[in-house]
Amino acid sequence: LDEPMTDLSTIPFYMISRRAREDVKVCLSGEGGDELFAGYDRFKASRVDRYFSLVPEPIRRHLIAPLVRALPDQPSKKGAINMLKRFIDGAMLPKEGGHIRWQCFGSPEQDAALFKPEFIETVRPDLFAPIRYYMEKCESENRLDREIYTDIRGVMPDSVLMKVDKMSMAHALEVRVPFLDYEFVEFTATIPPHLKLRRFTTKAVFREAIDPILPPGIAWRKKQGYSLPIKNWLREEMRDYMVETLSCSPVIKQHLRMEYVNTLIAQHLARTHNHNHILWSLINVAVWHRLFVEEKKTGRSAVVAAASGG
Asked: Which of 199, 225, 251 is the last residue of a domain?
């Protein structure tokens, strides 16, 4: 890849694309459905935040937030405590920050501890400026409409769609996304937001529309994600690789506080915290930098470097 791609679902999507290419050259994928019809937990979190914001700010910030953050992490990303922590972290941010917080596995506080100050000042003086731009550009005043617009215009092109394109084209498989046909996208924008997220039922109007034509239970079943045991791999099979990669990477040493990186590694290996997402992201950045930046300086082929593992 010519830029870091840290989405954990890249691996299973790569393998699915490889298998699909054995039989077909073109296939369909469902990207866009969750964004258009409010299908993610972050949309439900915004609904909860509407009521949570009624609690006086000092109580939220100085009483509730510290109590929740003090709770121990759970092994599962979807564990109730972990979900509550992510919600609280998002609720303490501006509205645009709260929405994007559900798509991140760090926080402004963790960034300050992880990155060197000069790096933060150079790369990201205003963390939420890109999200705020799309929120304000949306013509609707409804918060859910604005979040959906932001996901479609500001998030998908550089994350989900890039992942799908690169993982599929690695096997010469062409993937098309019918949900993102421009006429369909424009039509969904006319649907009132309360029909998309009905109380806490995501994609409500879409589920009701397709239920009669699908086998029983399909339209209303829970989301089936691309889950990988990354946290276990980093503690077992990839343990030495992780430690060596992060300890020796010039780009990691240049821009990150190594004492904090070592703390993340130690906590993850001790199983007191689950830092798999941030550690996986750092590994990807380190490997990308080695293959596409360092090799240009040394004249060593990226292909040779990748094949030799050094």
From this structure: 225
Q: Is residue 280 one of the residues assigned to a domain? A: yes
Domain count, the chain: 2
- Say if 310 falls within a structural domain: no
Q: How far apart are CA 307 and CA 169, in angstroms?
A: 21
CA angle 112, 293, 309 (to 5 degrees): 100
Note the pTM of the prediction, 2 decimals.
0.83
Residue-wise pLDDT for 7-35, tens only, equals 888 999 999 999 999 999 999 999 999 99
190 and 49 in a common domain? yes
CB atoms within 10 A of CB 243: 14
Q: For residue range 133-156, what is the model confidence (pLDDT) as tens digits? A: 899 999 999 999 999 999 999 889
Residue with tokens 């258009």: 36
Same domain assignment for residues 59 and 111: yes
163 within some domain: yes
